[in-house]
Amino acid sequence: MDDIRTTLQVGAVVGPERHRFRLQSELRSHPYGMLWKAEDLASSGRPEVTLLFLPEVLCRQPEFVERLRKWVILSRKCKHPHALDCYGLFSFKGSAFLAFEPLDGLTLADMLQQGQTSKLKPEQKQGLLIQSGKAIDAFHRETRKDHASLSPELIFISTGRGVRVMMIGWRHLVEDYLDLMQDPPGYPQYQAPEGFDPQPTSIRSDVYAFAAIIYHLYAGKPAFSPQDDEKARYQRELKAPAGLDARQWQHLQQALSPDQQARPSSVLELLKQLYLEQAAEAENELATPSEVQLSSISQSPLGRSIAAFQQRLAPWLASPKLHWLHRIPFRRLILPGVFFFGLLTGLLLSIPLRPDISAYETERLRLLAEIEALNSPVTSQTLTHTDPAEDVLVDPFSEHTTEESPESPSTDEQPAITAAQHTERETLEGGNSLMRFRDHFGDSGFAPLMQALPPGEFLMGDLNRMGDDNERPVRTITFDYAFALGVHEVTFAEYDQFATATGRPLPDDAGWGRGQRPVINVSWEDARDYTRWLADVTGEPYRLPTEAEWEYTARAGTISAWWWGNELIPAMAVCDGCGTQWDGQQTAPVGQLPANPWGFMDMHGNVDEWVQDCYSDHYGQAPEDGSAVLSGDCQLRVMRGGSWFDIPRVIRSSSRYRHTIDSRRNTWGFRVAVDLPDGH
């Protein structure tokens, strides 16, 4: 992190040009980098986020960033409210960083190291473990993959938000580079014995790691030191920690068994063994309370509250119509009520969990729980009640929750985010040295064929004095970031996946056919929504290209009006007068004509292509770094490339025009861009 530390200063703006963040304060160092509080400048309202700047020594390792990107996609599948929400992976000055929902920076590892966990009440420890465990269990169910990296440093505790578990499986990413890391990660201290072998780990390996975390929380010291190896997992005899009874310790020992099959099948199963059985036993013990128990409880503040409550109801109960209420054994309900109130209090204290709760706050929450309980009948079904409105209080292991996940930052109003699907990037052979690839997602989904662009600079605008005033002044554009553009325009086959998945009507194909023909009759808003959907399902940063990116690609290193020269050559493009069978009649299937020197097809003609930029009638104030113009009249967006309907002059590399964002025609389509990590 030494090189990047000089850049990370309060007020610094970081991130790629299209998604900037302003640093607000440094939170702390972390084994996997530096945590900073920042504001998201690309989202409305500039929401607060937490950025994790990764060690540059890791970013320089082959395939590390690409593997991390896949883990980001995988982690986004877990939508549990206590799973830390990751907004994305971004490149910056040869390094990379992750953006997460806001955090305070405090981890369970900090609390354990500083002895703060000894101050937690049993109910608070239970709440912390239930929140963490349910998030981990949700990750297992939704990804069908083990985490393999569980440790207290990945469990964050924030005021007002409670527990958040980071779902990045770091062991899969850094195992080969541990000797290069300045601060060694904590997962080896908690990993199962099979984690020391090359054999694959499993979900039961995560059960072991979570059990080791539970042991550390209750015992106040870890079960194993960072130097302990696989042999220690078999030979060490652990002592029962304070705070667990004999039955709970027996279950925890089973979870810490070297034999995978002897462990509980899931983290949730372990939590149920530890806590629900304890609750059930307590309920049975309360079934026939003694008079001594009732007498002592009656003298408690809660008992006196119930007595006062019953006394206030006495005149009302005297009504003959309500005489049956006298048969209710209020005193017999006191002790079960106390147990329920204790459980309710513990959960209220743990959501959100606060490591340093004052005596005043504790008493206030206790009284609130007692008052709430006075308004609710206590029954034998309390511990198995499944009313969705009360699940979070009466059954901590229910999978229903009324808590909402925090929303990811958004740039403007947009459709609901689609869960990322398993995505594989297929690398293909191109006709030149530039990388070609296609992303495949879900069972059979596919993105457009993409090709990376070479870094560099070019002259943008009317270089041949054949254009209009809106193509001037000519200026030099320099790209210092990596991106790829679609080899072809987006086809019906590609767009129809989106329309079907989101319930949109299919665009009209004008009777020319669908499949590999470019999609038509789409507005700028339709094109933007397609790229957002594609980014969501793949987890990759797909978007519309900027105007500068589009012209850079169309020119492909040339300075002529069209990529092949300043004179029209028949059958090089589809336009009205370009010498093809489709001229002035209809679209051609994509890829029917020669590619430009960089391998891109149909940049001239076939369909007009929407780009990101808001329209301006000159380049006077346009950026020179390749980014889009996002100011001015954004109800008008730029179109590039011309169409089958246009004359040759309109399909030149620098030709540009505009239309409103909600209009559609059978000459209009688009292609997509995607950001690539540096050094791709």
Features of the shown structure:
680 residues; alpha+beta; Phosphorylase Kinase, domain 1; Transferase(Phosphotransferase), domain 1; 4 domains; seven-stranded antiparallel β-sheet; Prot_kinase_dom; transferase
Rounded to an integer, what's the Rg over CA atoms? 31 Å
CATH top level class name of the largest domain? Alpha Beta
* Content-based structural category: alpha+beta
Shape: elongated
Percent strand: 15-25%
In total, how many domains does the architecture comprise?
A: 4
User: What's the helix count?
Assistant: 18
Q: Mind telling me which CATH architecture of the largest domain this is? A: Alpha-Beta Complex
Major β-sheet, in short?
7 strands, antiparallel
Low-confidence stretches: 281-307, 320-326, 330-335, 345-417
Short description:
The chain is α+β, with helices and mostly antiparallel strands. 30% of the residues lie in helices and 16% in strands. The protein has 18 helices and 21 strands.
Task: Explain what the structure shows.
The chain has helices at 2-5, 56-59, 64-75, 108-113, 122-143, 171-174, 203-219, 230-235, 246-255, 267-285, 291-298, 301-317, 334-350, 359-374, 391-394, 492-502, 524-538, 547-555, and strands spanning 13-14, 21-30, 33-40, 48-53, 86-92, 95-100, 155-158, 162-165, 423-428, 436-441, 445-446, 450-452, 456-460, 475-479, 482-486, 542-543, 608-615, 633-640, 656-660, 668-670, 673-676. It is an alpha+beta fold. A hairpin with a 3-residue loop joins strand 10 (436-441) and strand 11. 42% of the residues are buried. Helix 5 packs across helix 10 (267-285), helix 5 packs across helix 13 and helix 9 (246-255) runs antiparallel to helix 10. The chain folds into 4 domains: 2-100, Phosphorylase Kinase, domain 1, CATH 3.30.200; 108-282, Transferase(Phosphotransferase) domain 1 (Transferase(Phosphotransferase), domain 1); 288-343 and 355-394, no CATH class; 423-676, paralog of FGE (formylglycine-generating enzyme), CATH 3.90.1580.
